[in-house]
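Journal club side-thread
Mid-discussion, someone asked how the predicted structure for our own chain would compare to the paper's figures. Pasting it here so we can look after the session.
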Amino acid sequence: MYRVINYFVIFSALILMGCTQKVPTDSDGLIGEWSLKAITNSDGESRQMESGNMVEFTSTDIVESIKGYGKRRYSYSREANVLVLTSGADKIVWSILSQQQDVLNVETPVGVYQLAKH
């Protein structure tokens, strides 16, 4: 009986480890508030954004605060430079194109976000 319980506990732990979502850490300085400076569309047209537009990264969520559109919160997971955001049943992919200490360029479905650390 002890062996059966022991095997069940080990099996359950393995299942849980395989199903857990990878939680981003701030080892690369992504976590925090970033000012949205510009958005570059796929055709190369760049639109400067007014001050007050923000993207905030936490260890579990991304919050977009865009004037005229309000705040949108997404949970996300990260694998290298790919961020997979969850909005209801939808999955949205953002790709980090480049990141320096205070500058971040992220490709989104809307275009490339040009962000500056706040």
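Post-session note: The chain has a mean pLDDT of 85.
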